Amino acid sequence: MGKLARGVAVIGAGMSKFGAFPDKTTRELFVEAFTEAVNSVDKGIETKEIEALFLGNFSNDIFEGQVHTGPLMADMVGVTPGPAMRIEDACASSGVAFRLGVLAVASGAHDVVCVGGVEKMTNLETSRVTDVLASAADATYEFPAGATFPGLYAEIANAHMKKYGTTVEQLRMVGIKNHENGALNPKAQFQSTIRDIMKSRIERARAKGLPVPSWKDEMDFLSDPMANPIVAWPLRLFDCSPITDGASAVILAAEEVARRFTDTPIHVIGTGQGSDSLALHDREEFTSLRAARIAAREAYRMAGLEPRDIQIAEVHDCFTIAEIVATEDLGFFKPGEGGRAVEEGLTRRNGEKPINTSGGLKAKGHPVGASGAAQVVEIWHQLRGEAGARQVPGVEVGLTHNVGGSGASCVVHIFRR
Amino acid sequence: MGKLARGVAVIGAGMSKFGAFPDKTTRELFVEAFTEAVNSVDKGIETKEIEALFLGNFSNDIFEGQVHTGPLMADMVGVTPGPAMRIEDACASSGVAFRLGVLAVASGAHDVVCVGGVEKMTNLETSRVTDVLASAADATYEFPAGATFPGLYAEIANAHMKKYGTTVEQLRMVGIKNHENGALNPKAQFQSTIRDIMKSRIERARAKGLPVPSWKDEMDFLSDPMANPIVAWPLRLFDCSPITDGASAVILAAEEVARRFTDTPIHVIGTGQGSDSLALHDREEFTSLRAARIAAREAYRMAGLEPRDIQIAEVHDCFTIAEIVATEDLGFFKPGEGGRAVEEGLTRRNGEKPINTSGGLKAKGHPVGASGAAQVVEIWHQLRGEAGARQVPGVEVGLTHNVGGSGASCVVHIFRR
């Protein structure tokens, strides 16, 4: 097991604007992403050349009352009558859809396929969204006990802080960094740095004649419980990814046909996936995700690479602590050193291991079923040198890391220009 | 495209009892199916040898409030920490999961995987189940207009009757046949012929001192609007598959390792999948499903076979008309001749083309996400000569045909002993 029968490459990628779009349906969001992906194919592609659609979606069942979204989206973009299906692995849905698209092409069944993701979450009010998301945790034991994802990740954060001395400031720095990146991403839900947000709050207070806050800097702002309220200690509002509407799409081709479409394919050189118990209380440890370690090990093995070979990565920062744990699980930093790495700036765009240059789930937004494929969109842009103001110079090897639930699913992919 | 890099075989198969099980969770149902599948492997298999789980499920989101069922079920049976995911294509969910499992093994990523399906529908009352199912039709146009699946399939039935002269008696004969088969299947939800049901109603009336019905035979019984009420003309109650709880599981292996597990693997020699618009009103015709024709064409091409080569088939009889259309779409009978074929007994166990020897969705039951893989379970038993009282002698080539929605998804597989 573990060696693909033939190579697979990304030949196109696109995403919708991420944000809150009360006037758009999932169909419209997906058409937006798909159209950009098709238009990104250097030598052009006709829709009829795309043989199948692998669609990541978490729970359109509840968010929009529409199931069977695979063929629906295929019909909207013209992949019909080709195979179309929805893949669900909570927030890892389109990362897993990407893996299945890769395997389908590698198997010989298809030469060219589309992998997409879509989620429209703002139809429901926040407390209801939190409930729906919580159904990706263990609905028999965790949810009835009152656990929702902020609480579960808070447990992970507390365990990490206790075991390794990770600090709340280090958590805040993940958010500050990712907002700095998101500010440079025109598709991001939040195109503003934490400093921008702080300044606009001060200006607003002044304009309204209210008492003007005296925040010294971002960290001071993020420590103010009025500005950044506690959600589940130690996680505050700015430690949590937002509720988002959005879609993503990438086009995959067998290596043997990829050059028909582009002279700059991005090769998928490693894929790995792992699983774990849904419930946190069934795990041996809280400070590392076994599913992520399994997924990473398999992807590295297939790629013949080690963590130090990865030049850029998009990791699953649904909460700030999740990014720190991810960078440890992926072997970028030793267990317990992820927090310090952020503090030292190693994960910034100009650091030795740039993480979440897109803004990550924190600032780019987290339309759960679309996030995994959207990570691939960022790596595609970066490895092709087309990431605009947030481009990291000269990167040729990138990685994506997409988690479902509190770590019951994880899928890792490695790409080379 | 279209040639698999390596061969794949079924080496084990099992299913839970189908029926209404208020005291069982999806976890318990799936463990039941998985355990039977593992125990069916002739030379034995250890759970740790099963590398991944592809789980078909329609909407556990709503039925049980639990999403992320892939890793949950993997954890229940011991496939953790291997990859696990849920696939959704409405009622074709586990048929599509089966295809993705086949492609994953063919790709070289895995040698041995489990494909399963599970659905627990009886948690909700019937009208609510009908609503949830209707979300697999077009929720923007069809559902708000009042359409549910009995109504959509009634439109198909009316069109077929008008165009080809198919009769209501022919529809009823599909149900009579499938109940005859289900009566011989210990796993079926309804283990009784229509005649058995008719007789028990007569006895019950007599025992209660009520007026005793004077039904002459099954057809007379099925024509009585008190015994068999109209759901959506021309479909009556006994034209509709039931609401069911159940699970199914099959184990797939690469041909190169299959003999380690059994001397009688069932080879997957063809796979095909197609899609179509979700909404019936967007289709060019109602009397045939384009997705089914596309799926069948691809599966036949890959297998190098023609419809006449198929000796036995499980087809998607969610409504009696669906079986008639299926046998035409698969090329077993010419368009418009499916009804007459039933009338002439060609699709009975001793006919030239035995269809739904398991009892089909009609009598075996239809736990939607489990039905596709359960079709494979029946073909596995039949091709191995282990189908007990309902065994069709000497069959070596079989087919499964699994439909999602009113035909927006269809997946076809061909098997050889």
Give a description of the structure:
The structure is a homodimer of 417-residue chains. With 417 residues, chain A is α/β, with parallel strands linked by helices. The first copy, chain A, has a single domain (8-124, 242-416), classed as Peroxisomal Thiolase, Chain A, domain 1 (3-Layer(aba) Sandwich). Chain A contains 15 helices and 11 strands. A 9-stranded mixed beta sheet of chain A has the order 3-2-4-7-1-8-11-10-9, sandwiched between helices. Chain A has a two-stranded antiparallel ribbon with strand order 5-6. Chain A is globular, with a radius of gyration of 20 Å. The model of chain A has no long low-confidence stretch (mean pLDDT 97). Strand 3 (84-88) of chain A pairs antiparallel with strand 3 (84-88) of chain B.
Compact description:
The structure is a homodimer of 417-residue chains. The first copy, chain A, is an alpha/beta fold and 417 residues long. Chain A has helices at 26-39, 60-63, 69-77, 93-106, 126-134, 149-164, 168-182, 194-208, 218-223, 255-258, 290-303, 320-329, 338-343, 360-364, 368-383; strands at 8-15, 53-56, 84-88, 112-120, 230-232, 235-236, 245-254, 266-275, 312-314, 397-404, 409-416.
